[in-house]
Write the structure tokens for this entry.
Amino acid sequence: MVKLKRMRLDKKGMQTFLSPLETDVLTALYKLEKARTREIHRLLGQRRKVALTSVAVMLDRLHQKGIVRRAIEDGRGGGHYIYSPRTSRHEFEESIVDDAVNKLINSFGPVAANYFYKRFSKKE
């Protein structure tokens, strides 16, 4: 489960929690399912200009946040990190929503709980 440190409410989707480059890197990783830094960089390079080192830093940040896994695979030239998402995109987005709702309830208590009850018990 993802723990939010900050949210940008003026953004949509994963960018409410992640930087634009982190979002692009994670989206590319969801497409590839499992990849090395260079493969993700190659895929991102089709849409935007980004340095290989920037992609490596973003993958390290996503790993530190617990969003992606990494394993070492031996290859030509030594070991390489292989990255993969820890969860499906849907599960990741659901965990962001869950954490945000929990923070609202913990911060505002009965007011937030009552609001959610009123908002979602309406018949539409």
